[in-house]
Write a structure and sequence with these properties.
four-stranded antiparallel β-sheet; alpha+beta; elongated
Length: 100
């Protein structure tokens, strides 16, 4: 029974990580209006699942070229994504930035 519980938790954590990556990627792509050549790297450092909700914490490093002057800029932003179970998958429902 314990092995089944660990496997289930591991699978939920993997799904949570996938939803967090998607949410952070969407946040990074929001910069596309003022910037071009936008790229990002997502790093998930922890996932917490509690029933049908959870959260994922990590950081996203964004690099882009400013359309107004052609200057290359970058930044790294930490944050937490709220997750809600939707059927067999997880949806990112919110993002809180915590740059410290």
């Amino acid at each position: 029974m314990q092995a089944d519980a660990r496997t289930g938790h591991r699978q939920r954590a993997q799904r949570g990580r996938a939803a967090a990556n998607e949410g952070l990627g969407a946040a990074a792509s929001a910069y596309g209006a003022a910037y071009s050549s936008v790229s990002y790297k997502v790093e998930i450092t922890s996932v917490r699942i509690n029933g049908n909700s959870g959260s994922a914490s990590g950081k996203v490093t964004i690099s882009a070229t400013q359309n107004s002057n052609g200057q290359r800029v970058s930044g790294t932003y930490g944050g937490t994504i709220k997750l809600v179970r939707s059927g067999c998958s997880w949806q990112a429902t919110g993002f809180t930035r915590n740059d410290g």
